[in-house]
Amino acid sequence: YPQPLSRIPQGKIHQTYTSQVHALLLKEYPRRFPVADRIAQEVPDTLLLAEAFWLMEGYFVRTLGMHRVYNSAFMHMLKAEENQKYRNVLKNVLEFNPQILKRFVNFMNNPDEDTAVAQFGKDDKYFGVCILLITLPGLPMFGHGQIEGFTEKYGMEYKKSYWDEIVDEWLVERHKREIFPLLSKRYLFSDVKRFVLYDFYTPSGEVNENVFAYSNCYGTERALVVYNNKYESTCGWIRTSVAMNEEGRLIQKSLAQGLVIKDNGQYYDSFRDNISGLEYLRCGQDLAQNGLYAELEGFKYQVFLDFKEIQDDHKVIYARLTGFLNGRGISNIEDARYELSVKGIQERFFEMTSPQMLRDSLSHADVFSQGMYALFGEIRECGYGVESNIVKELEYVLSAIWQLFEDAEVQSKDIILPFEVDEKGWRILLLWLIVHRLGKNEQESVELFDRWRLNEGIVKSIEMLDVKHQEAVNELLLIKILVKNYRWFEYFRQTTSQAAASLNLKQLLAQPLVQEYLQINRHEGVEYLHKESLEDMLYWLSVVANIQLVTKVKKHDLPAILAGLNETIKKCLHLAEDCGY
Questions:
Q1: Which end of the chain is more exposed for a tag (fewer CB within 10 A), N or C?
Q2: pLDDT above 70 covers what percent of the chain?
Q3: Taking a C-beta distance cutoff of 8 angstroms, is the pair 434, 552 a contact?
Q4: Gap between the Cα atoms of 137 and 381, Å rounded
């Protein structure tokens, strides 16, 4: 040392062996800079940071005993996209002593260098390297003005800035969105005890040295980071780690070992990409045997967090969902799982409420019965309790509806809202009939209707009958109001005092569904509602509340009953005005 042909003057005359140089350095540094040993004895709580010569970081830590060392290789190599070289730096440390890795102080700029914006820009490459900065073991260091996007280079002698620079709000916001949440999880990334660096295998079987893939764990929390530090797109598998020193032995780990994933076909693992917010689902056995497949465009990155282990049940919902997603990410795994679990109910319900089925049910009782048996059978299959005689009860109610509408003689000519035997009327009654017994009571029926996500299907079914979208939405609102309040009209009719009747109506009009249907709005201190919608709602409430009466009275008594209903509707309309509408 120096090496032959080096430019050091008189180097050849004073050449010596490299081993002798190392021995002399070991004595020279502590003698001239008596830091490590002496400080460890006299002030043991002192943190020692070293600014080492490039690529001598490991020497300063393991030989000279420095606690932290500035890792300039991080900035220089990643800026130049010398990815293989920097992966070699990481691999060499992991093979020698992984603990050294957490002593590195990684940075993207310092006062001696150009600013981070000047070196890495403000787009994906900057944020990709910044993701490495904050998720690799060690200590991340942000340079002055880095987050704000400042471009003035500050020398060591600077006491103030000289340029009047404006904060780049877009850059700051992206830091807040992608970087800061991960900084709050430094406990998950800072240590090396469970850090694993992986090779990224392309479909051709080669290792893509431009991709950094590594995992880390803390307690039950797990994280996997993948970043492509090259403009070219790539795809491949994260399956096997690089060699690492564990208790004096060089070992390799699989992805399943690094992330503590069970090699079992009954277990599934969900995880979320912190960057896109999408959630993913994979079979544990597939991850253990094949690894994780990833596709990355140039300078793109993914940070997978919130790993959850899920055991599938006899319905194999997660297996079906994994097959359906086929590797794609979605906004919420549990929502998708629930959607799949009630898909059978949705399909049977939409079959039952299709335009053709509604028409057939009007003329063929057996068609209605078969459809309802299929629907309630699927509901039982999904784990919801259904009374065994419920279809018979619905058949009975359907016959009462036919009796109410089939003879025009039962209708008084004086009523303001005559029962119309048209397609819309039958549709509303049949849909109410189907929905109102989904649950054990009115409230549960509406809740299950929403929980099973049947709203959109009903609206589409109604639209298929040449009904405009808003009209279909209003019909759906009306049906849900009828389901929730189908006994209300009967209670109202039995109310004796004016005050009690007024209170009863106020409570009805205060319901959110009713307010939306009646288009209730406030203007200059006065609340307004749509009168025709109120009349329709009261009319249908009177119908569903008195369908049961049809089977209990004689035919010649029906006109008087319906006339009485008409008077009750008039009373409600007057009360609505008295209530301030």
A1: N
A2: 83
A3: no
A4: 50
Q: Do 352 and 243 share a structural domain?
A: no
- Residue 153: which of 141, 165, 137, 138 has the closest Cα? 165
| pLDDT the model gives residue 250 | 95
Per-residue pLDDT reduced to its tens digit, 172-181: 999 999 999 9
- Between CA 365 and CA 560 the distance in angstroms is 29
Domain boundary among 305, 324, 341: 341
* Confidence at 426, pLDDT banded by 50, 70, 90: confident
Residue at 2 is within a domain: no
**Pair 115, 163: CB distance under 8 Å:** no
Which pTM does this prediction carry?
Answer: 0.75
Range(s) of the domain holding residue 517: 344-578
What angle separates helix 498-509 from helix 558-578, to the nearest 10 degrees? 80
- Measured CA to CA, the distance from residue 361 to residue 373 in angstroms comes to 13
Last residue of some domain: 319, 341, 363?
341
Cα torsion 138, 295, 308, 334 to 10°: value is: 140
Shared-domain flag, residues 415 and 471: yes
Highest mean pLDDT pick, 299-313, 416-430, 459-473, 520-534:
299-313
Q: Are strands 196-201 and 234-241 parallel, antiparallel or unpaired?
A: antiparallel
DSSP β-bridge partners for residue 227: 212, 301
Whether 94 and 245 have beta carbons less than 8 Å apart is answered as yes
- Number of domains within the chain: 3
